[in-house]
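Workshop exercise sheet. Pairs work together: one partner reads the sequence aloud, the other fills in the structure field after running the prediction. Swap roles for the next sheet.
Pair: D.N. / O.F.
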Amino acid sequence: RSLLAITGAFTDGSGASWELRRGNDYVGNRGYFESYGHYPTVMELEAGEYVLEAISNSAIDSTSITFVIEDTSCATRVAAGDSIVAAGTSLFKMDLTAGQTYFVKANSGTNWKIYQPNLTAVLDVYSYYGDVQSFTPAVSGTWYFSYLQGDSADAMLDLQTAQPLALDAPIAGILDPNRAGGIYTGTLTENKLVYLDLAGSDADVRVVIYEGDNQINSFYGPISDTGLTTPLQLHAGNYRIEISLNGSSNTSAYSLGLLDFSTATPLSADAEVAANLVPGQAVVFKFDAQAGQQLTYTPADSGVMSGRWSLYDEFGNQLQSGEI
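Structure field:
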């Protein structure tokens, strides 16, 4: 058994179609030679001899056609975790590991399908979905990817695994509109109050936080917006954070970190505090206060730097904020 991809085009005349025959029996549905774009027909076939019959749409005019037939034996091999660029090819193969979750995104105007080593289709990837899709192989081995539709010779299917994310360990990255974005996973062994520290350019972004497979929060807006995120009360468990561009066609650099309130630098009342502030990055401090206690915060001259400060209670509720 094999996957077979047939891609045909006509350059002049009235167009044409094709039929695939095995013996006296036709296999699958009629396919067409297209005037533009890349629209292969992908079929799963048993071993045997087949005949491709091309039929002109006109009984009078001649039609010039070209076509390519690919099967799994000649599928283009791509290294695990790399993006797949079609560039006129329809079938690809990649060695994947059972139990490892992979995240995929198709660039604009393209459709793809993913097959297990036994050629069973497991996932359709459509660019108009917009969101990143994921799948976790049940078996290790050579998996197959078919490019089904698109107008661009640079059609791409971005495939990646998640990167580890630990508390108080910022990570930097680049967001590309054609790629899945930044995907990070981490595990909390106890409940935590954390601050999602996001910094970068003015590009609009979408940040989504999952506990297991359940979305628990999302943020939209410019990375530079200091009000984009708020403290998060997270329970012990497995988490995933996805950050992607929200409508922008340009790449954008960013940094991302989860700041643990429990490990914040402690402060004492009536004592001046000196610290280094890195542009675009947050710093978290903590102090103990008594009910009814009156406290005054006086920021020192920060020179040319400007920013904001916020005061939260032990549950992450914002009590007050201001300019530095």
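Discussion prompt: The two ends are 68 Å apart (CA to CA). What would you look at next?
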